[in-house]
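Revision sheet: structure tokens.
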Amino acid sequence: MRTLAPFGRRRVAVTGAEDVGPYRVLHAADPDGPAPWPGQFYMLASAERWGAGVDERPFLPRAFSFLHATQGRLSFMLEDVGPGTRRLAELVAGDGLQIVGPLGRGFSAPRDGRVAILVGGGIGIPPLVAWARALTEGGVAVRGLLGFRDAAHAQAARLLASAPIRVATDDGSVGRHGLVTELLAGELHDASELRAQHGDGTVATVYSCGPPAMLEAVRVLCAARGVPAQLALEAGMACGFGACYGCAVPLREGGYARVCVDGPVIDAARLLAVPAR
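Predicted:
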């Protein structure tokens, strides 16, 4: 699914920001922008101090899936990991934000009454938060599986409030000690038992966003069990609209898909592998 973006970059006003553990949630007013579809993304840049200077490198905008989009208000979650995200994290109410979007293709709903299993890793959870809300409003059963480094980062799990969730952490400080894909393996095992009881139909569809290694593990798990999956890929983007080919990923049938226009959400079965970036 795709909502087309208006032409060009537009300036919107930051309306607030809050910390959720080590993450920063940024809110902005976009009253004239179209309503995005869950899984789509925006290219963001602060309206001031975005040229090269302190710590260099912030000329290019940064791609972010939206966390919430309601009544002309957009929210994004980010983590201060470099000069670009640092300048975005410093924005406060009244500051200007340059945006392009919504861009790319989003998620598609599960068919035939299947349960939606949402698998997120760290900073990859925003599109799943938006998707969970849309699915539950549409009467689809949703389960959330979220993985984080530690208890501090796991505070972001509360953002996925519209679905029951299970959490895994790398250090075991919250939830299961281990990888979120271990939780997924258990869910898919349960789903296979349901399938055996009720016929040959697939009973679940997996939706996932997170680091490349996690997405590749999700792809392999789902392929081995015949479970359809849609992956929201992360990739470094220079443009966001398909001109630079910097975000191309290889396809099983040959050729490449550009994450920014053919994705970021791509059926896992189409991918040769999720590239490590």
